[in-house]
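Two records follow; treat each independently.
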Amino acid sequence: MSTRPFRFAVSARGQGDTVEELKTFARKAEDLGYDVLMLPDHLYQQLSPLHVLVAAAQATTRLRFGTLTLANDFRHPAMLAKECATVDVLTGGRFELGLGTGSLPADNEQAGLPLDPPGVKVERLEETLRILKSFFKGETVQLQGKHYHIAGLQGYPRPVQRPYPPLLLGASGPRMLRLAAREADIISIMPGPPGRPASSMAEKRDIIRLAAGDRWQHIELNTLGMRVQVDGQPELPSAAPASAGGYVGSREAVVDQLLRQREESDVSYMAIIGAAIDAFAPVVAKLK
């Protein structure tokens, strides 16, 4: 059973398209006790996440900033490393790097990027992680991999956080869960693709724990609640299907749900959609 303290993140997607709107939302998240402001990474109507997080950081002092999650196909790892190290510098060491293989085939189709089989995408992500970690440590990066060839890349700038910003990997299937167990500080446990038998949160936790070995006690588990309805308020808008994970019920029931989830599955880090920032705030206050 996890004794790790709860942490709560809120998504800034759809919460403003100007610097002032984003700063106002970030200040509100900080004032309400949220720990992290997050953004996804898609090609539909949203601003570029890394730029938004840097802008929002200028209005806060405690709030941390993360991506849930950057799509590995969108950026060459050399540029990704430099951009993320710069974000950590510009946020004063408050950045959490969330990375995954990508979740929307439409993104690749719109951008003209090949939609490779899952195994190939995981191979590429493994190489990206090697490049990132070497770069963040200030090393001269050398890699002759299957997918990337890096020759003498200088690791500059160094992130404020050492050896590197907390690394979150989004994972659902066994192979990604095992990779995350070996490499990540935070694992966002995600639902599997439609049509495949669903594994429970506890089953995915057990895969992580077995693969992590001695690392297990240092890994934080995260989930994203796409459906939020607290104390009988109208359910907040979300593109998620009715079967998607979420937090629905009275304040007391949702608090009990999160306590039970932490006890049964060791999940202590919850993220919610931005529209739910007020509705979910009493739950944050209770569990903090």
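The next record belongs to a different protein.
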Amino acid sequence: MPRMAEGRGRTAAGLIALTYGLFAGGCVGPTVPPPQGTSSDPGAALRGEYLVNAGNCTGCHTDSENGGVALAGGKAIATPFGTYYSRNITPDTSHGIGVWSDVDFLRAVRQGVMPDGAYYFPAFPFPSFTLMTDRDILDIKAYLSTQPPAARENRAPDAPFPFGVRAVMAPWRLLYFSAGPYVPDPRQGPEWNRGAYLANAVSHCGECHTPRGALGALDNDRRFAGTKSARSGIRAPDITPDHAEGIGTWSADDIATLLENGMTPQGDFVGGAMAEVVKGTAKLTVADRHAIALYVKSVPPLRASGAPGS
């Protein structure tokens, strides 16, 4: 399996660390300098657009329900800890990323740290995006810089104390965050590794389809096993090859077809958040959709119910 950001420690230790983080203060960035960015080449924006589609960036960073401008943020993201709002990632110089350097953007996406050193909450899936390559991250920035700026102010989370306090993220990160990038598995071929990279880093499938612990970190021992009854009300199916609760009866072509047009082998069509995701994966190459399918078919069979997989 590729190297993933894995949780460390038990819930009790996490609660102690949370309390310590609140009163120790210190919402600051990492002590290790982030990698230095380089200027993007002329093809960067086109590659970035492809990655934005693969990662459903527009879907998350657009308040479509309220007629929001594309990529201007404000979309409500419900979690068990409160509601968080996606941020403005247009090139607006006041509320967006218009004055960010390459280093600022790399640090935000790979390390979950704002230009001022404050921490992002994991409603922004930096624990998955950390696996992306520097070039892919900067290609996304190059594409975003070509979009119209929108002067929409970022909205603070509607979360009770302490879950709206960014300093709390300091101990959380010590327990649950491991910085990338993705390291290919030498035991696997290029197609499998491409699929693993797309599924785990760019498209961050596990952010919805993997159960979370008491403090909101992904339980990577149960990657893709589905979220049966999340307290936020969001349900995502088991997408492991389990035959009872997962997609074990699906072929790789079945998975690739769903990523292309949203249709399951039973002739149904996905809805909700997955329908939004398919708008992006439909724009991927046939080869990339099949690479994702190949990888997903290879993961261990698991069940959201916790019963043994098969």
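Discussion point: The CA atoms of residues 14 and 291 lie 36 Å apart. How would you locate this feature using only the token line?
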